[in-house]
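Hi R.,

Here's the chain you asked about this morning:
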Amino acid sequence: MDKPIIAYDRFDGGRRQVHRIVGTVPPELAAFGLAIIHGSRLLRGGVLEQPPGFRRSFDFYCLSHLVEGEGIYHNADTGQSREFHAGELVMAMPGTAQLYGGNASYYLEDSICFCGRTADALREAGIIADGVFSCGPVRRVGRIIETALEPTLFAQLKAATMLQQLLLELHAENLELSIGGSSAFAALLVELRRTPERWWTVGEMAKECGLSESHFRRAFHAYTGMPPKLYLDRMKLQLAAEMLISTGLTLAQVAARFGYVDPFHFSRRFKALNGMSPDSYRRHYRMR
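And the predicted structure, written out as tokens:
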């Protein structure tokens, strides 16, 4: 991570502030899809004091992990305002009008600013979003900054990889906190993979998790990002693809292993997911 490449522009008589990238992201990091453009360890701030109507936004992504103190978060776009505490983390997405800082106390943070198409894809998938999230007392953001302070390309790529891993972990951890019963979902997914020949109904899956069907559908989509039946279909076909290139079983035998009575129906579904027929897939990917 080199020198900061962020500028602060004020508009509307100082009532609107935009933080923007003015430097150039190294082409290797741009190609990688994720670049850390600035980081601060144990940056100490005071109580948040801004005039009424003040709006601040970033042209990039930002994480602020509150290490010590008490925080306050305002999102002018949604009207959300809430206090948060040490061990919690603020995520700020590009373009969102938001403010955060000390709340009647000092604010000691580890923060990272980053950009790239991988971050855009994570946002689009709902993996990262504006708001306050649990992060825990361990200085996970600080560790990434420490790595990014080394200017070598290897260190920059390593830090970006650590950041991507942290974003995925935070999503999983906070999802578990928000929906509850996540261990039941994890156990269900194991059971689905253990019995790939079975066509589970939504009612059977909901019963396995101890939920009503309507609650299960919502919670399952939040946990996996897709409806239960689509997940089941994709899981079967991905496992079938692996079996096609790792065994000598016939197409009908592979289809039967995953509950498809009709091999022709299996072939149609397989091609819809993978873009080629099972026979073509086997010829193309099987190691010789």
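The radius of gyration is 24 Å.

Let me know if you need anything else.
M.
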